[in-house]
Amino acid sequence: MSNLITAILNLIESSKTELNSVVHSHIRANNRGEALEEYVKDLFANTVDIVDGMERNEKLNEVFSYLGNQNNPPDAMLKQGDAIEIKKIESSHSSIALNSSYPKSKLLCNDSMISHSCKSCEAWDEKDMLYVVGVVNNDNLTSLAFVYGDLYCASKECYERIKKSIKDGVNRIPGVDFTTTKELGRVNKVDPLGITYLRIRGMWGIENPFTVFNYIYHKDETKKFNFMCLLTDQKFYSFANHNDLLLYSETNKNVLISNVRIKDPNNPAQLINSKLITFSI
Prior knowledge:
Blueprint: H1 4-14, H2 32-45, H3 53-63, E1 64-69, E2 72-78, E3 83-89, E4 95-99, E5 106-108, H4 116-120, E6 126-137, E7 140-148, H5 149-152, H6 156-171, E8 177-178, E9 185-188, E10 198-200, E11 204-207, H7 209-212, E12 226-232, H8 233-238, H9 242-251, E13 255-264, E14 267-280
Parallel strand pairs: 3-6, 7-12
Antiparallel strand pairs: 1-2, 2-3, 4-11, 5-6, 6-7, 8-9, 9-10, 12-14, 13-14
Helix pairs in contact: 1-2, 2-3
């Protein structure tokens, strides 16, 4: 069963960081964001070097229970494993646009923002959320970050409270015809003919992991590619193959596994025992 450790080992062993406009002979990526998504799928499915379309599809089917779309999170879900959200940025200082979906420390099956096919793809109630953020320059992946949501994002209640306060405030505006909606609001009959409406949408964003965690990690600017991964100690040791990565780090000087303490997203006064995994070439 594929997991984070599998993907990291595949990344280290392949050392391929070029995102071609045609990722495989059978897949055409319309933009570099799509190319990054296919690249990340290959890391988890161990299909980096597979060019046969049917063979790759079979491998993806073995590993993933869900492969999503750009309108609904997540981008992928591992069978009996994590949910994955993949984001492309153009520099290590860029923010990440999440659009109408706020950051998630965990993915819940009852989330109104996810599709029915995502909810029904396997039996699940909650999944750990893995954010994958890639810095792409032309067709080259220069940096890649894997960060779990429980170290990166506050609890659901934090974002829902803000969303509800704004929505309630908008709905209390007098003399305006509102309609029930999943968005922050919808105003009907704006004009005298009653034919114009206004949609009020939330556009969420978050600072990227290279900015957020600069107190424990800095890229090696002399290298052409830098990788960092953050996860709690508990999560790291939950992977049955974590020893494979520990052994690999003992023989490969470019792979480091460090003990770090990360600020709790819900209470920065508390620190969470975590692992920082880095790799550069």
